[in-house]
Amino acid sequence: MTVRNDRTANRGGVRGWLARPGGGPGTWAFLANRVSALVLVGYLFLHLGVLSLLARGPASWETFLSLAGHPAFIAVDLVLFAAVLWHAANGVRVAAVGTGLAVTRQRVLAAWAVVACVVVLVAAGVLLLGEV
Are 111 and 25 contacting, i.e. CB atoms less than 8 angstroms apart? Predict the structure, then answer.
């Protein structure tokens, strides 16, 4: 029989991320924050790969720039922008709750973070896709 101590009892791997221990706004905001962080880390590696095109010469870079203006590429940029927006807005919410300023207002802060992200993302999408 395996005995689990308190430090390992709450570790559930990816399944633990998806479980709804409380199911409140804090849980869903935490899950969305983790997903946005993974998107940002993935983008970091993609960005380094794109920058490596500069080492291959001007022809490689020009080919990339011709692809970068395509609407599908801009849609990927909007996904990245959504991840940055959410991560920043949720960071403000976490700071307000963590400092004790808004412990009882998690649901309201999470809702405002979502609303702010959607409004800014829609505006950015209209502006970016309108230029294509």
Answer: yes
